[in-house]
Amino acid sequence: MPDDALMQALEAWRAKGRDDYPVQAMWNAVIAGVVFQHPSIASLRREFGRNPALMDLCGFEMLPVAKKPTVGAHVIPLEPYLGAPPDSAFSRFLATLIQLEAAGGYMKQMLSSLRQSLCEVLPDFGRHLWAKTTVAPSLTRQFAMAYLTKPKHTPTRNPPIL
């Protein structure tokens, strides 16, 4: 994927910020979420818990890592945490991606580059477009009102006994 410009922009954005999770690993995780059709970041994180090979492929630590001690702490906590970032880290990363896309159009450049690469390999790519569509009836106001005012069918067999 031609994402060099985006990675450089993300690294520059993070230049003086926290570096708990690598930018490339976070980007790979976002792509994995799209490829494997995860509806949410929480779903992707659960997949990381079930599939450490995917976590390693994205670039995160597979083995538990000791938590960083807090400032002024005298004891280093012994509870390990997995190398998958929390939801908050993904939220901040996605917000940064949105800001960078609005400012620089990196995604458009990547998609254009990918399309150009496909056109070089497949010269007829995109020349003929075919789509199958289905006509779906729409409920216009007239039909909706007729449906809503239509009397409901009540069974006449076995009327209720009073």
Topology:
Blueprint: H1 4-13, H2 23-35, H3 41-50, H4 52-58, E1 65-66, E2 80-81, H5 87-104, H6 106-121, H7 141-149
Antiparallel strand pairs: 1-2
Q: Report the total helices.
A: 7
| Main sheet: strand order | 1-2
- How large is the share of residues in beta strands? under 5%
3D shape: extended
Uncertain segments of ≥5 residues (pLDDT<50)? 76-81
Structural class by SSE content: mainly alpha
Average predicted local confidence, pLDDT: 78
Radius of gyration: 27 Å
- End-to-end C-alpha gap: 75 Å
What are the secondary-structure elements, in order, as H or E? Answer: HHHHEEHHH
Report the strand count: 2
Percent range of helical residues: 40-55%
Describe this structure in words.
With 162 residues, this protein is mainly alpha-helical. The chain has one domain (4-121). The chain is 51% helix and 2% strand. Strands 1-2 form a two-stranded antiparallel ribbon. Helix 2 (23-35) packs across helix 4 (52-58) and helix 3 (41-50) crosses helix 4.
Task: Label this structure with key terms.
162 residues; mainly alpha; two-stranded antiparallel ribbon; extended
Quick summary of this structure?
This protein is mainly alpha-helical. The chain has helices spanning 4-13, 23-35, 41-50, 52-58, 87-104, 106-121, 141-149; strands at residues 65-66, 80-81.
